[in-house]
Design brief:
Nucleotidyltransferase, domain 5, 5-stranded mixed β-sheet, IS481-like_transpos
């Protein structure tokens, strides 16, 4: 029998083990006979010598000392000091308790990390009441390419020859209420391209019966320029900018960027970036006319405009 696979000894088996050990057999021989390890033989012999036959009986595995729960008052004091941004070591010193106790209480209350003291502000979801009240505008940088990449073809022999041909920029606008979207590709994100896209986007929304009242952008240099501000003033359109480092403020634009990448830019393997550019109008048509949008209860953006059927048909053609 494998001596490393200990058998579950009954009290009678333990008595036999002790008799064999006291008969002069070596601990190893006794262990092989009883199917236990030599350490177990030594444990039961020592217990018999200390307690007699009573030491060989089954006994409770309950520990001699039980953990005493930390008093509620102490827990509250630990939490109070933690909210004052004290470290675990400082709290343990000030309250004369062990660092392990402090750690256990902080873990129970979800305050183990300092950042837990300042949970993130819940996202405030909103939707404007009618189309045109707010248009979100954003820009996404895309790499240009002249041939299919090696991740698709598996051919690395010309891996470096297609690099460094530059970038192009997807300018996009989406209506907060209807989710109707428009986008174009421009060679840069400078002021001239941003103004050109703004005017084209406004024409697009006007064709769909939408009068734009507000525009929301990030804090890019082009959007903060005087000419951009002047153009919006002349059009009597209010300009709202997102708070710095908080892209979720412009969340609908960010979401449309992700949808565009997944369902257009990276939807299939294009031979060139020009081929990808040519597919953009088809994607926009699907997005606006046929694709159900989860944020508007599975409706299509075009369905939220409330246009007459004849007008919708003219837009389609």
């Amino acid at each position: 029998m494998n001596i490393h696979q200990n058998a579950r000894l009954t009290p009678a088996g333990r008595e036999r083990l002790v008799r064999l050990a006291r008969s002069g057999l070596s601990p190893k021989a006794v262990a092989e006979t009883m199917g236990v390890c030599p350490k177990t033989v030594g444990k039961w012999v020592a217990r018999f010598e200390a307690e007699g036959a009573a030491g060989l009986q089954d006994r409770s595995s309950r520990p001699h000392t039980l953990h005493r729960p930390t008093p509620v008052a102490t827990q509250e004091a630990i939490v109070t000091l933690r909210r004052q941004r004290l470290t675990g070591a400082q709290i343990a010193r000030d309250l004369a308790v062990s660092p392990a106790t402090v750690s256990r209480v902080l873990r129970r209350y979800g305050l183990s990390r300092m950042r837990d003291l300042e949970p993130p502000v819940p996202v405030q979801r909103y939707e404007r009441d009618k189309p045109g009240e707010l248009i979100h505008i954003d820009i996404k940088k895309l790499g240009r390419f002249e041939r299919m990449g090696h991740r698709i073809t598996g051919d690395r022999t010309r891996q470096s020859s297609g690099r460094g041909i530059g970038w192009e920029y997807l300018h996009l606008a989406i209506d907060d209420h209807s989710r109707l979207a428009y986008s174009e590709i421009h060679p840069d994100e400078q002021r001239g391209s941003c103004l050109a896209f703004l005017f084209n986007a406004l024409r697009f929304f006007r064709r769909h019966g939408i009068t734009v009242e507000r525009v929301m952008t990030d804090n890019g240099p082009a959007f903060k320029s005087r000419r951009y501000a002047k153009a919006l003033r002349r059009l009597t359109i209010r300009h709202k900018r997102t708070r710095p480092y908080t892209p979720k403020t412009n969340g609908k634009a960010e979401r449309f960027v992700q949808t565009s990448l997944r369902e257009w830019a990276y939807a299939r393997a294009y031979d060139t970036s020009e081929q990808r550019r040519a597919e953009l109008p088809a994607f926009l048509f699907r997005y606006n006319w046929h694709r159900p949008h989860g944020g508007i209860n599975g409706k299509t953006p075009i369905s939220r405009l409330g246009l007459a059927e004849d007008n919708l048909l003219s837009l389609h053609t």
